[in-house]
Amino acid sequence: MIKVYTEVLGFNNLMYRYMSLPNSLSLADLAYYTLASYLSEEYADFVIESNGIPFACPNCEDEQFNKLPCASSIQPDFKVGDGFKMVYDLEEPFEIEIQVEKVDDIEESSVINGRGFAIWDGFKEFQDYYYQSMELFKEYVKANDMNLSDFPVDEDLDIIELNKVLEDNFEELKDVYEGE
């Protein structure tokens, strides 16, 4: 097992997860688990960097990145202190840092702790305002002829419920990205 800390950058330390993951993961699997922990429902291209080398998601459609080596073909030897950088949704990017904090022999996956609800696929600009100030967010929602009820604005992350869907979310993301 590896214990990792992931954080979506730009949201003032308000979107993060501590996770326990199998240490026999490909680089793409690490990305899928990360996205699954943030309840991502879009299947946008991503790039994940290991040791300064970028790798693209399987079947990457972005012409700027589709010539990069594929993240599913890389099996890292995870060590405490390893860091990875991920850019998800290359058109409206979310930057995510991943840090390995512990390595041992347990092979399980779960979210241990976290904060922030989910990545709002397709609504990054709204989420930027949400994590800056609730007043700015409300104004921005109103200015765009939407309602607060259109967004999951609940900051209480339910770890138990998240863990119930983590594996299914991971498998669905893997199937979509890898075409299985």
Description:
It is a single chain. With 180 residues, the chain is α+β, with helices and mostly antiparallel strands. The chain has helices spanning 27-37, 124-132, 134-143, 159-178; strands spanning 2-8, 16-21, 46-50, 53-56, 83-88, 94-103, 110-115. It has a 7-stranded antiparallel sheet with strand order 4-3-5-6-1-2-7. A hairpin with a 7-residue loop joins strand 1 (2-8) and strand 2. Helix 2 packs antiparallel against helix 3 (134-143). The longest helix has 20 residues, at 159-178. The protein is globular and about 50 Å long. The two termini are 25 Å apart. The relative contact order is 0.22.
Number of DSSP-assigned strands = 7
Structural class: alpha+beta
Estimated helix fraction: 25-40%
Task: Give the percentage of residues in beta strands.
Answer: 15-25%
Overall radius of gyration = 16 Å
- Spatial strand sequence of the major β-sheet: 4-3-5-6-1-2-7
- Report the end-to-end length measured between terminal Cα atoms: 25 Å
Overall pLDDT metric: 86
Backbone shape: globular
What quaternary form is this? single chain
Compressed to H and E, one letter per element, the order equals EEHEEEEEHHH
How would you sum up the major sheet?
Answer: 7 strands, antiparallel
Helix count, DSSP H or I runs of 4 or more residues: 4
Low-pLDDT segments, ≥5 res = none
